[in-house]
Amino acid sequence: MKKIFKIIILITIFFISGGAIQASSVYLSSYKETKVGDILEVSVYADTDEEVINSIDFVIDFPEDLLEFSGYRENDTSIKLWVNSPNSKDGQVYLSGVIPGGIQGIYDENSKSYKDILLTKILFAVRKEGLAKFSFTKADVLKHDGRGTPLDIPSNGIEINIKNQSEDSLFYERDASNPMPFDITFIKKTDDTPALIYFKSEDIKIGNREWAEGSSPVSVKRGIFSKKVVVKAYDFNGNYVLGEGKVPGIIPGYAFVVFILLILGFFTFRVIKYKL
To answer: Are 119 and 47 in contact (CB under 8 A)?
Structure first.
């Protein structure tokens, strides 16, 4: 009887442990189907089982014969500070970023619990009919424990069926309008983040004409003197608009002018005194 009781306990512990391991994961989410000519948005999520994390380093495989990497979106996502912003090479998307202060999930007031973390949204131009399979080649997640401890977490890919556009599908003209004008803001360096320039640009989605927002902080180095920064914001049809901003220098411009005037005044005084 004791032996049976021990076996029951061991089986119970096994299933409880197995369930806890499978509770957390990094995974991809999108529509099950899309069409040739569409822009496909694939969301990258992390379910950490309420473990606080502060950085990720991913490599995601995708079929480059069917899809073309087109960029990423940051609206409503958690990673704004990129070490290596999403980019593509040889059928793989590389991305790594940090979350200053860490995050354990998105708190939901209604359920009084944490929802999965939306890390970023990756965009692809759909080029060819077929079955698009996405998978993680690398899925490193670090805990926010001051030691950079890796979080043991599985990864799950996704499959998306791509169909050809039907002849009776609604045709939309190419978007020829430029993105909306935007400003550039300089954010000073803190203990948690480097000096950044922050900019937002808006464009109109093709077809449904709803507003879409894109934003991106970029790390910048401050020089001795102030400098002008120019950002060119593109949409997915090659239209662009320029934005200009100013990164202040370590020495303010007026201080440099005052310094030059003092030097000139000093030498002028010496010349006048010498002549007298």
So the answer is: no
- Domains assigned to the chain: 20-163 (2.60.40.680), 184-253 (no CATH)
pTM over 0.90: no
Tens of pLDDT, residues 156-208: 999 999 999 764 454 445 556 666 666 666 656 655 555 555 555 655 544 44
CA distance 218 to 197: 5
Inter-residue contact 20 to 61 (CB < 8 Å): no
Instruction: Estimate to the nearest angstrom the gap between the alpha carbon of 210 and the chain centroid.
Output: 22
Length of the chain: 276
Q: What is the pLDDT of residues 116-139, one digit of tens each?
A: 999 999 999 999 999 999 999 999
Q: What are phi and psi of 111, to 5 degrees?
A: -90, -10
